[in-house]
Amino acid sequence: MDGLAADNVWNDAILDIQSGIESAPRGMKTREKINHTTMCDMRYPIVTNTRRLLGYKFMIQEAIWILRGDNRLSTIEPYSKMINKFSDDKYFFRGAYGPKIIDQLQYVCRSLKEDRNTRQAVINIWRESPYDTNDIPCTVSFQFLIRQDKLHIIANMRSNDLWLGWPYDNFNFSMLGAYIALLLKDIYNIEVGLGITTINAGSRHLYESNFESADMCTRSNYEDYVNYKPLNLKDYSSAEDFLEHLEFVSLDKGEIEEMKVKALDREYGKGFAHEFFSKAE
């Protein structure tokens, strides 16, 4: 397993946070590290530790939801039993990342095209002076840098729950980086490889209710992890082709047969993490 694969990075972060300070926002006890950073190879963005029992259908559907610029409850609720509590009106999400990202993609791609060494390719997520809402975004911004012909994404977060949030955030942010890399090729014929997903968190923490489960995950054995085909941009003809691949790998064989989907000319079980997702719940 690659040293900067998500499984390794997440495991190391848990061990680090276990020695953090005690903090109790809203009266809920946590272990916390302030200004904490994780760095993950964008090609290996999936936490596969079977002891974690992640919702992989939700993981991949949330990435699609974000990259399509969606903010509706109805399109993501089928994949999560608890997400509706964050919607104020049970229809939209006030803090959804998708609409903000879509509105700024053109600027980011143009900035990277005009100066491959730019430091100005930034997407803002934070809403200034947010009103009282159940959906205050945890992410403040994304920055994109091309260095040594690889695209790197730096996510800055005000808060990051290492148990509930990080495995999904790291995957989503890596998919965003891959999507932008493919857009650069589509629009400007600029080819870049995949670099590092860096997530800086003002507060990275574990809630007391997850202490025991997180510790159990750090004691995992080799058989608790799953190998998968890494993300390779050369497998996709366009950014849209990449999104269609994500949509396809979220289907199981029964759904494909029932819907008579031709799999977009893809062979079932091939491509980035396809076999892994097809077997996951």
Description of the structure:
The chain contains eight helices and seven strands; from the N terminus they run αββααββββαβαααα. The protein is an alpha/beta fold. It has a single domain, classed as 2-Layer Sandwich (Thymidylate Synthase, Chain A), CATH 3.30.572.10. Strands 1, 2, 3, 4, 5, 6 and 7 form a seven-stranded mixed beta sheet that branches. Strand 1 and strand 2 (30-41) form a beta hairpin. Helix 2 packs antiparallel against helix 6 (239-249). The radius of gyration is 18 Å and the shape is globular. It starts with 5 loop residues before the first helix and ends with a helix. The model is unreliable at 260-264 (pLDDT under 50).
The number of distinct helices, counting runs of at least 4 residues, comes to 8
Q: Give the helix proportion (percent range).
A: 25-40%
Low-pLDDT stretches are 260-264
Average pLDDT works out at: 92
Strand share of the residues? Answer: 15-25%
- CATH A-level architecture: 2-Layer Sandwich
Going by CATH, what is the homologous superfamily?
A: Thymidylate synthase/dCMP hydroxymethylase domain
Shape: globular
Radius of gyration: 18 Å
Tags for this model:
seven-stranded mixed sheet, 281 residues, 7 strands, Thymidylate Synthase, Chain A, alpha/beta, 8 helices
